[in-house]
Specification:
Blueprint lengths: L6 H17 L5 H17 L5 H26 L17 E6 L7 E9 L2 E8 L8 E8 L2 E5 L3
Parallel strand pairs: 3-5
Antiparallel strand pairs: 1-2, 1-4, 2-3, 4-5
Helix pairs in contact: 1-2, 2-3
């Protein structure tokens, strides 16, 4: 008696791999499961395909999906803000004054890349600054930046 792999074997195998991703969060097992589902679809269309071809297609599909994920899609999903990093990482960043500080209020500085989740921050500075001046972060005091103007 010859053992024949049916399309639904691959479908179940693919679903099990995708479900395993819930318990082993590496986000690579998912692509092997998706490759198995692709083999199930092809095998459904071509039921007399040899087992060696099924394994070959599964391997190639899994590799292609994994490469596509890590090369193209994952980099698009990275957070390019500096939210969640320590304050030492923002020391030295430069921004532009958009509102000068007064006697009773703090100034506002705008950064091209958001720092710690915000692109505008209140600041205090020991030197005179004007709107449009480039200033650099020296320290963080609460939710206010301590900045300096460099020549």
């Amino acid at each position: 008696m010859e053992f024949k792999i049916l399309y639904w074997y691959w479908l179940v195998f693919g679903m099990l791999l995708i479900i395993a991703e819930l318990f082993i969060p590496s986000f690579t097992i998912f692509w092997f499961g998706l490759g198995a589902i692709i083999v199930a679809l092809i095998l459904w269309l071509l039921p007399d395909m040899a087992v060696s071809w099924q394994l070959f297609i599964w391997a190639i599909a899994s590799i292609v999906f994994t490469i596509l994920w890590f090369k193209f899609f994952k980099p698009l999903m990275t957070d390019r803000t500096k939210a969640g990093i320590s304050r030492e990482a923002i020391v030295g960043e430069s921004g532009q004054v958009i509102k000068i500080p007064g006697a009773d209020r703090r100034g506002i500085v705008r950064f091209t890349t958001p720092l710690l989740g915000a692109d505008e921050w209140p600041f205090i500075c020991e030197q005179e600054v004007a709107a449009g001046d480039r200033i650099f972060v020296k320290d963080v005091s609460g939710n206010t930046l301590v900045v300096e103007k460099r020549d």
